[in-house]
Amino acid sequence: MEMPEPNGAVLAKRAQVLARLREVLPQEALITDETGCRAYECDALTAYRCIPMAVALPSCTEDVAEILRICHDEGVPVVPRGSGTSLAGGALPSADSVVIGVARLRDVLEVNTQDRYVRVQAGITNLAVTAHIEGDGFFYAPDPSSQLACAISGNIAMNSGGAHCLKYGVTTNNLLGVTMVLMDGTIMTLGGPYLDAGGLDLLGVVCGSEGQLGIVTEATLKILPKPEGARPVLMGFDSNEVAGACVSDIIKAGILPVAIEFMDRPCIRACEDFAKAGYPDCEALLIVEVEGSPREIDEQLARIKDIAQRHAPIELRESASAEESARIWLGRKSAFGAMGQINDYMCLDGTIPVSSLPLVLRRIGEMSRDYGLDVANVFHAGDGNMHPLILFDANKPGDLERCEAFGADILKLCVEVGGCLTGEHGVGIEKRDLMGVQYTAADMEAQMRIKDVFDARWLMNAAKVFPLAASATRRAA
Ligand SMILES: Cc1cc2nc3c(=O)[nH]c(=O)nc-3n(C[C@H](O)[C@H](O)[C@H](O)COP(=O)(O)OP(=O)(O)OC[C@H]3O[C@@H](n4cnc5c(N)ncnc54)[C@H](O)[C@@H]3O)c2cc1C
Predict the structure, then answer these.
(1) Per the count of CB atoms within 10 A, which of 226, 313, 409, 469 is most buried?
(2) Number of folded domains in the chain?
(3) pLDDT band (50, 70, 90) for residue 3
């Protein structure tokens, strides 16, 4: 993003803000030089970049409160940041903003296996939570494919999901409480190590609020005992539509696998080359995983395979070992990275009713031909959360714009069939201008009034989620 050179008044204001931040933060916790700040210029939506005024890396909740008090006083916008893996531009800075990164807040504060929760600092990575408790036979269920890198804070802000969320739900179903700092520096606690607090469900409002309401510094997370065993089965089909119909039938039969993942031919090829996962050569692949005791696994898989047989699969193969299962999942979880090695792509994230899968897959194929851009499909099919990857050439003039128009049409289609604009990646800047496709002006006004309550001056992660004109008016008021 090209920005005009700052004038004298802006530079003086910057100097004042930075001087105040230096008073409360050690030198290594405040980055102000251009090279250092450049590392924070984007998230995983790399088409959009902007170098912030400064980056603050606090070490505790009180530090966050101090930084926010100063920025609030000075009218400086802030951008909360976890690990910067957002695919929606949620952590994109603006040139006049201070990025507040929580990467140094990564301690486990409490483990309680009896009452089944952990309390963590919010910058800890998703995978580190499970790594900390798996020796006790427990795990934290939400498993975004980015789990090695993404922070719990980003997961909370985006209400992230993952392959195994079909059975266990997404972040909001596994979050018990947070400590959060408001824009004016107020520290508040919502929820705790119990299932449901009285009063308004503000925890539900905060989870998925995309860094609009406050900076989360601590979280209490539900943990679950590890299942006795799990086994995936690979199902290959000769068309996307048939695979989609099979998913729809499994769900209709009332079976609840722990995961149903879908990949089409371009994705299968890329993942196979990348991970040597043993995927069959077919047009569409489902990975269906069930868990429980060996007998429970056998019973569920028998029913699932029976349904698959009715769709004439060209391959139907159960994993024969823990190593094979790990390879199968490595392939799936590497999908975005593997595709990125061979093509520029835009990753979409719409959700649809599962019964619409065959129709939506067919319409995406038709649109792909109309736009002259290929699409690779990989997604959490069991809960209808689609991730079409539109392939384009970033160096070819006009390709990005065509890709954006194509993406918008796919998301409109998701809404048209009764789904929604985003399943798990969030709105950020990516879908900000499409919010009107899903929400009426009154719906959006109600959401913006909630932001007014938490952040009256609209300084927190401004210009995201809500239509640009509306947030500019709010900020100017
Ligand atoms: C290869 C790849 C695979 C992915 N797979 C999945 C997947 O399977 N499922 C899925 O749901 N997502 C997936 N994602 C998207 C992304 O990883 C998630 O959105 C993740 O939760 C972002 O976490 P983060 O720590 O990187 O957050 P960031 O990118 O740093 O920020 C994301 C949002 O959270 C806000 N935020 C961050 N920290 C705080 C805080 N402390 N307080 C308040 N707001 C905060 C930011 O302002 C921003 O709006 C994937 C991304 C990649 C690159």
Answers:
(1) 313
(2) 5
(3) low
Is the pLDDT score of 4 beyond 80? no
3-state secondary structure string across 209-276: CCCCCCEEEEEEEECEECCCEEEEEEEEECCHHHHHHHHHHHHHCCCCCCEEEEEEHHHHHHHHHHHC
Q: Do residues 156 and 150 touch, judged by C-beta distance below 8 A?
A: no
Domain region containing 14:
8-101
Q: How far is the CA of 155 from the centre of ligand 1 (A)?
A: 5
Residue 130 in this model has a pLDDT that exceeds 80: yes
Taking the centre of ligand 1 as the mean of its atom positions, its distance from the CA of residue 315, in whole angstroms, is 35
| Sign of the CA dihedral running 142, 144, 150, 156 | negative
Tens digit of each residue's pLDDT (9 = 90 or more) over 302-339: 999 999 999 999 999 999 999 999 999 999 989 988 99
In short, whether 83's Cβ falls inside 6 Å of ligand 1 is yes
Is residue 456 one of the residues assigned to a domain?
Answer: yes
The pLDDT score that the predictor gives to residue 170 is 96
Amino acid at site 446: A
Task: Say whether both 114 and 220 belong to one domain.
Answer: yes
Q: Which helix (H) or strand (E) holds 132?
A: helix 126-133
Answer yes or no: is 2 within a domain: no
> Is the CB–ligand 1 distance for residue 210 below 6 Å?
yes
Query: Residues 81, 140: one domain?
Result: no
**CA pair distance 304, 260, nearest whole angstrom:** 11
**Do both 96 and 123 map to the same domain?**
no
Both 256 and 207 in a single domain?
Answer: no
Ligand 1, from 150, 166, 172, 332: best to mutate by most atoms within 8 Å of Cβ?
Answer: 150
Q: Is the minimum distance from the CB of 216 to ligand 1 under 6 angstroms?
A: yes
What per-residue confidence (pLDDT) applies to 357?
Answer: 87
Q: Which of 86, 333, 464 to mutate to test the pocket of ligand 1 (most atoms within 8 A of CB)?
A: 86
Of 82, 101, 120, the residue at which a domain comes to its end is 101
Q: What is the pLDDT of residues 226-276, one digit of tens each?
A: 999 999 999 999 999 899 999 999 999 999 999 999 999 999 999 999 999
> Which atom of ligand 1 is the closest one to the Cα of 44?
53
Same domain, 310 and 363: no
Domain boundary among 55, 81, 101: 101
Query: 150 C-alpha to center of ligand 1: Å?
Result: 6
Q: What is the CATH number of the domain that holds 400?
A: 3.30.70.2740
Beta carbon of 121 within 6 Å of any ligand 1 atom? no
Ligand 1 near 157 CB (within 6 A): yes
Q: Same structural domain for residues 332 and 235?
A: yes
Is the CB of residue 87 below 6 angstroms from any atom belonging to ligand 1?
yes
Q: Could you read off the pLDDT of 14-38 as tens digits, one per residue?
A: 999 999 999 999 999 999 999 999 9
